[in-house]
Design a protein that fits this description.
By secondary structure, the protein is mainly alpha-helical. Helices cover 41% and strands 9% of the residues. α6 packs antiparallel against α7. The chain is elongated, with a radius of gyration of 27 Å.
Amino acid sequence: MKSQSNKVQSACDVKIYSDKGSLALRFPLRHSALWELLDGKSLKGKPKCLGIGKYGFSADEPDDWKRATTIASQIEADLDHPEWDKLFDRTLAKYGLGGGKYAKLADIIQLPGTTQSLPEITVGAMWEEYLLWKQPQLQPTTFSIAFLRTYTNIIKGLIWHKASRTFSQQTSIWDKAITSTTVLTDVILSHPATGINKRRTLNALSEAFTRLQSQGKTKLTVNPFVIIAGVAENKTDMY
């Protein structure tokens, strides 16, 4: 079977070998830093070896050697890519090897000298921080009625029905990450509140986003809460 490995595999530094009837992957030393972090222990200068027999890879099956060769090439390509941190799946699920101990460490492991990207803050989290900052600048009534109730309800997609004195909910941007320059404003504009309240909500969100940028809490360079000209005024204000 070892000779078969040489025939199947080529131009890949992640080697496939037979280990007690199962297949295993041996990684080149340039990948050792990552695996030491994933395993939480030093390899002491030895290459990382990863057994894949528990995922159904048998040394006696030619097709398993071929599948392992494909996986080895995929992992090596991802780890050697300039943007490896975006491509390499630390859970290994991308390569058909997921569900093991590495899945638990997927969100915290990174190579030395690299900065792990953080997810964008949600609209709701940004808004709550903004309200704490904005409250001392406003009259209590203005803050309570406009910001804490009207604008917050619009952001949450809540619609107040006077007849039944109940709320219903449409699409909300509250839990959405701030990543889009169009979708977020479109959702606000689709709310049945008056045009002026929607514009004021977007104004407040725009100010909140500008504050977020000044704190370095977002990677976006374009403010997604731009004021849209020509927002129609509704005759009935539901708030």
